[in-house]
Design goal:
Length: 330
């Protein structure tokens, strides 16, 4: 059973990867929700954490109100978490999460949250035999500190959530979905995302991090621009190179180039709330996240006389600049 499950989860990064894990492990799914006007922005993160002792083991649902910058962390007994080993279906308490549906029924200090949403026309990072998702061939490498998956660059939302008895209609809004799993978050990272550009369906995601590797470290990165039904991929494993990388007062400027294309991204943060992330021992790492960042993106062909393939500004963007950022700037 373990042998079959190992191969199944490689090609299905969306499903729960942690069956048979009992210690020093985390897994979380990230749903970003925006209403049709962009006035209401939320991140909802269901997950599970196994620490060094049973006292640390627990499931959780985090909620970030992006406009109010209010974070909430609802802790659950580990036995209130169930997940399928065949499909992406996760239940925590009375709440249910999958790729195409979310049912919320939770409460905690200062928060009561209920509602049901359906997600349509998901656009996941493609999975192939040799490159099973955003991790590329790194998905086959055991014992990495943190793995990543993009479950949908962009999709339509239908439904309503009720926050402290106030209904928030989300029908007609846009969503984004990803996940992380492993031992802990990196010691330094930058994460950027937006799927609100003037051209509908365009979405960009960026992750740069310090990666432990065989007793050493390297700066790894993954970037994807989904535009006009085409995914432009830039990653350490594709041979792309970072040619410029600056972080100043949490503003980010990044240029990445391969043999065909160059992508330039300038991101500016505005307001953020504090989420909690895994540090290898506890869910105690403070993660400053914005849901209102602005991303200026420019993609050019380096083969065709610098022809501009795409240029635009994404709003309602997700942004994190975490850890000892100087470790990945140099």
């Amino acid at each position: 059973m373990r042998f079959l499950y190992f191969f199944k989860k490689i090609w299905q990064p969306e499903i729960y990867q942690g069956h048979f894990k009992k210690k020093n492990y985390f897994e979380g799914w990230y749903y970003k929700l925006a209403d049709a006007s962009g006035e209401q922005l939320f991140a909802i993160i269901p997950g599970i954490f196994y620490g060094n002792s049973e006292e640390d083991h627990h499931a959780f649902i985090q909620v970030l109100d992006g406009k109010q910058r209010k974070p909430f962390y609802i802790r659950y007994d580990i036995h209130e978490f169930t997940a399928s080993s065949h499909t992406f279906e996760v239940t925590i308490g009375n709440s249910y999460f999958s790729g195409d549906k979310m049912i919320l029924d939770l409460s905690g200090p200062d928060l009561k949250l209920q509602g049901e949403m359906v997600f349509c026309d998901l656009k996941p990072w493609p999975v192939t035999l040799t490159s099973p998702g955003i991790m590329g061939w790194y998905a086959w490498v055991p014992f990495m500190e943190c793995y990543h998956g993009v479950l949908s660059f962009d999709h339509l939302i239908n439904g309503t959530i009720i926050i402290n008895d106030e209904p928030v209609p989300l029908t007609g809004g846009r969503g984004y979905m990803e996940k992380d799993w492993g031992i802990s978050f990196p010691s330094a990272w930058v994460w950027l995302q937006s799927n609100h550009f003037a051209s509908p369906g365009t979405s960009v995601m960026v992750s740069v991090a310090k990666i432990p590797w065989r007793g050493h470290f390297f700066r790894g990165f993954i970037m994807g621009l989904w535009h006009h039904h085409t995914l432009y991929k830039f990653a350490t494993y594709t041979g792309a190179q970072i040619t410029s990388f600056q972080v100043r007062n949490e503003d980010v400027f990044l240029v990445v180039e391969d043999k065909k294309y160059r992508i330039e991204i300038r991101a500016r943060n505005s307001d953020y709330g504090l989420l909690l992330g895994p540090d290898g021992k506890n869910m105690a790492l403070k993660v400053a996240e914005s849901l209102t960042a602005t991303l200026q993106v420019r993609l050019v062909s380096v083969r065709d006389r610098e022809d501009v393939i795409f240029e635009g500004t994404g709003v309602h963007g997700g942004m994190e600049v975490g850890g000892k950022i100087e470790e990945i700037l140099n």
